[in-house]
Specification:
By secondary structure, this protein is α/β, with parallel strands linked by helices. It has 2 domains: 100 residues, no CATH class; 126 residues, 60s Ribosomal Protein L30, Chain: A (2-Layer Sandwich). It contains 8 helices and 10 strands. The strands form 3 sheets. Strands 4-2-5-10 form a 4-stranded mixed sheet. Strands 6-9-7-8 form a 4-stranded mixed sheet. Strands 1-3 form a two-stranded parallel ribbon. Helix 2 runs antiparallel to helix 3.
């Protein structure tokens, strides 16, 4: 049994939060540069080039890449051979988020869903905890803005819809979103499980390394098919048209009930801000 003080988790979350909100994923910036060179629409190419300049300037000045520094989403994969000591892990994570958002002068966007009173701390964070094999703790931080989050959807399809139904659901989601999620977007898709399992998978897909290829050949092919169909919509960067509506589609699946076919689509804007550390 390995003992880990939750202060280590606190330090990891705070460090990632401070860095992620001012540094867009380098892989995304690389993909945007590739998109700019092949974009056929002048207005869309200008939009992509402007995004790149903004991301690079934000990193250089240590300022938020987007004013919506999001709701903090934390994924904790805790090895079953780990014994956590010290402060309650949920308190450690929330303390890290509170301090990072205060020290970084990041926008506090979290409020009560009904009376709309702001907590003024960007708390609470959304914390997903999973017990896994081993004696390590993997901590992932995702700053999720709501221009894109609001465009996400869950479909409870009938089994007869099949793979084509899945494809149609994802493409329809992006089509209905239009320019609202600040394209070019990245799309996470969870297929199977239950209502909440599909949604969880779709969100976790957004943690994938940008540009990575799905090890499941069937899913890799499906990702490419959906990506091509989305880009054929020609919504384009910031809605200006062109051939770069989506940078990547990432899919995960889980066995489901014979009577259902859940599909969750989590939309992510071009301002991809996440990181992972292993303790």
């Amino acid at each position: 049994m390995r003992t880990i003080d939750t202060n280590e988790i606190y330090k990891a979350v705070k460090e990632m939060a401070l860095a992620c909100c001012v540094n867009v994923d380098g892989g995304v910036v690389g993909m945007l540069k590739e998109a700019a060179t092949s974009e056929t629409n002048d207005a869309a190419r200008f939009a992509i080039e402007t995004i790149i300049k903004s991301d690079e300037k934000a990193a250089r000045l240590g300022m938020p890449a987007c004013q919506d520094t999001g709701m903090a989403v934390i994924f904790l994969e805790i090895g079953q051979d780990v014994s956590l000591t010290g402060e309650y892990v949920g308190d450690a994570v929330n303390r890290a988020v509170k301090e990072a958002y205060a020290e970084g002068y990041f926008r506090k966007s979290v409020l009560d869903p009904l009376d709309r009173i702001n907590t003024k701390t960007n708390l609470p964070a959304v914390i997903h905890t999973e017990i896994v094999r081993g004696d390590k703790v993997k901590v992932s931080f995702l700053a999720k803005g709501f221009g894109s989050e609001n465009m996400s959807r869950v479909y409870m399809l009938t089994p007869s819809k099949g793979v084509e139904g899945v494809i149609d659901a994802v493409v329809e989601t992006v089509k209905l979103a239009g320019s609202n999620p600040c394209p070019p977007v990245i799309v996470g898709v969870g297929i199977g499980g239950t209502f909440e399992k599909a949604a969880y998978m779709s969100k976790k897909c957004l943690l994938r390394e940008v540009g990575s290829v799905n090890p499941d050949k069937t899913l890799a092919g499906l990702e490419q098919t959906i990506l091509d169909k989305i880009n054929a919509l020609e919504i384009g960067a910031q809605g200006f048209g062109g051939n770069h509506t989506c940078l990547a589609v990432y899919i995960d699946k889980f066995p489901t009930h014979l009577a259902g076919l859940p599909v969750a689509i989590n939309v992510q804007c071009h301002s991809v801000r996440h990181d992972t550390k292993t303790i």
